[in-house]
Structure formats: C-alpha cells, structure tokens
Amino acid sequence: MSALEQIYKKYRLDVYRYLLSLTHDEDTAEDLLSDCFIIALCKLPFFRGDSSIKTWLFGIARNCYLRYIKKLRKTAALQDLVEVYIEEDITSHLLSKQAAERARELIMQKDERTQAIMNMRIEGYAYKEIAARLGMSEGAARVIEHRAKNQLRAQLKKEGYEIE
After folding, report:
1. Residue partners of 19: CB distance under 8 A and separation at least 6
2. pLDDT digits 0-9 by tens, 69-88
3. Residue 146: exposed, middle, or buried by beta-carbon count in 10 A (0-12, 13-18, 19+)?
4. Between the CA of residue 68 and those of 2, 85, 112, 118, 123, what are the distances in Å?
5. Which stretch of 25-34, 39-48, 128-137, 139-148 has the lowest confidence by average pLDDT?
6. Distance from chain centroid for Cα 58
7. pLDDT, position 113
8. pTM for this entry
9. Are 108 and 115 in contact (CB under 8 A)?
10. Using an 8 Å Cβ cutoff, are 130 and 141 in contact?
C-alpha cells in the first residue's frame, strides 16, 4: 500500500467532515475531498513535515474550499471567508457571524500593507502571489500575516469571542 493510500484511509473521513462543515453539501464535500487528495498526491514529495499530515491535509482542504467559493461566486461573501481564515484549529467549528464581523473591523484597523496581506490570504491567495503583488519576500508576507492573525485572535478572545 502506498503512502498516499495509507494517508487517505487514515484521514479521509476527518477531511470529509471538515469540508462538509464548510460546504453543508455532501456532493460538494466529496468533490472537494477528491481535489484535496489529488493535490496532496502531487505535493506529497514536497511535504516538509513542519506540521502533522492531518494539519497539512486540512490546509489543502481549506484552500480547495476557498478556490471553490471563488469559482462559485466571483465575489465570495467576505464574511464567509473571514470565518474560515480566523479559525485557530481548522477542525473546530466556524466562528459566529458576529465574531467574523468584529474580525473584519479589526483587520480594517491595521496598516494598509497588513490589511492587503490579510485580505489576500482570506481570499485564498498563496504567499508567493501576495509577495509578488506587494513587492516583498514570501517570508515577510508570512511573518506579517502570522503576527497580525495572532493579534486578531488575541483581541477576539479578550473581547469574549469563543475561539478554540
């Protein structure tokens, strides 16, 4: 049995449930699950081990979902994307609409560069694309987004929003 087959058997149901929680549609979740594992097959040789396989798969699944939304509606509801973006543990439940609205307000208080980076990540852009568009290194985009996202989570927790 290949490594991907083992990974598929072990994590298929978890990834499917995550996608189902995002899409609320079994057929769409199945389609996205297939896309997720096709991408994983192509990228498995490049997996660095910086996270667990499960976390890596959930990241791929989230990106598949974000691409799906962008295709479905050219201008996806930003609130839906913000909810997915600010999840600390992608296996947790989505944040409430109120928390997502507050997160959006907090993002708007950031400097223009940070806002641009966060908004592009919310929309599903890769760090490479962000770096090219904003004229910075990928590493800088990652650091700025990571720090801003941590500040955002901390502020939401401070204000009493449930973030797991």
Report:
1. 28, 29, 32, 33, 36, 61, 64, 65
2. 777 665 445 555 665 665 54
3. exposed
4. 28, 15, 27, 19, 11
5. 39-48
6. 8
7. 93
8. 0.49
9. yes
10. yes
